[in-house]
Design goal:
120 residues; alpha/beta
Length: 120
């Protein structure tokens, strides 16, 4: 398993046994472990670790807004629902996109990623 695959997703379990978030990207990662060394780059959420290993998937979460306790775009019922419920969250979008892009570049270089599997 020398090939390194990065799951690049807007939602991913925030911690072990997180049942409030759709788990399809995580479950895909579990299956892909048979063929790749799997990493996941996802947005940070309040209370979540910035990095951790979840069942053999190395998870890297990028912060995208200050204070971090205000980060609310990516989790819950999704970005669109978050924007409808909290219109001020639209102010986080430019920061989210910039931080996501910088994190992607850093992770690809730092971990020598070979393949990116992107989910939005």
């Amino acid at each position: 398993m020398d090939t390194k695959l990065l799951l690049f997703a807007s939602t991913f379990p925030r911690w072990e046994n997180d049942n409030e978030i759709p788990r399809f990207v995580y479950e895909l990662g579990l299956e892909l472990r048979r063929y790749f060394q799997v990493y996941a780059l996802t947005p940070h959420a309040p209370g979540a670790a910035k990095t951790e290993n979840l069942d053999g998937i190395q998870v890297i979460r990028f912060p995208y807004f200050i204070p971090e306790s205000w980060q609310n775009l990516a989790y819950g019922t999704g970005m669109l629902a978050s924007l409808k419920a909290h219109p001020w969250s639209a102010l986080q979008i430019p920061s989210f996109l910039a931080c996501q892009g910088m994190a992607l570049r850093r992770v690809v270089r730092e971990y020598n990623i070979d393949v990116i599997n992107s989910h939005w």
